[in-house]
Amino acid sequence: MGGSSGTAVKGARRPEVRLPALEPFGGGELEPDGDYDGLEFREADLAGQDGGGARFMDCALTGCALDETGLQHARILDSVLTGLRGVGTNLAEATLRDVEVVDARLGGVQLHGAVLERVVVRGGKIDYLNLRAARLKDVVFESCVLVEPDFGGARLERVEFVDCVLKEADLTAAALKDVDLRAAAELGIARGVDRLAGAVISPSQLMDLAPVLAAEMGIRVEG
User: Fold this and answer.
1) Which domains does the chain have, with CATH numbers?
2) pLDDT tens digits for 86-101?
3) Is residue 40 within 8 Å of residue 58, measured between CB atoms?
4) Exposed, middle or buried by CB within 10 Å (0-12, 13-18, 19+), for 87?
């Protein structure tokens, strides 16, 4: 299933993050609208803290706990996030640009209304990822597991799923352009299969999705 133009799908542009020499984060709690530049947060317990509206530039967050951390409207730029863990992290309406997310173990992450541009999510598992009404451009999900991700009303452009397990995804009212699903290790769509226009899938994936497509179109398959 290709895009309406009939041309080849355009690949995502990956981030090229080159971190400078970093200073260790001095401890303490995150501050709303804080400015964090060139810092390394290593195994910091940021659970329950409020960093809403904060700016992270050229930062590395490694092994940090983000349970119920408030990062709504935060800007995370040119940064590498490795081994993050937590439930209920709030990144609503945040901006992630030129960011690598590696081996995250997260659940119930709120990214609704967020902007993701040149982002790679590599490895790890994210349950119940909320990307409703988010804008994703040049994003790659690679070798990760996404359980019941919600892309409802989101706009996806040049997004790739590579060796990624996608379970029970919701694409309701989503808009897709140059979205490449062919290399997904598993493709499960619970809702919004009618929004796949603008995506490309493989012949085997088409066969796997046939029951969902038939149900969406009201086709009875018997015999």
Assistant:
1) 31-217 (2.160.20.80)
2) 999 999 999 999 999 9
3) no
4) middle
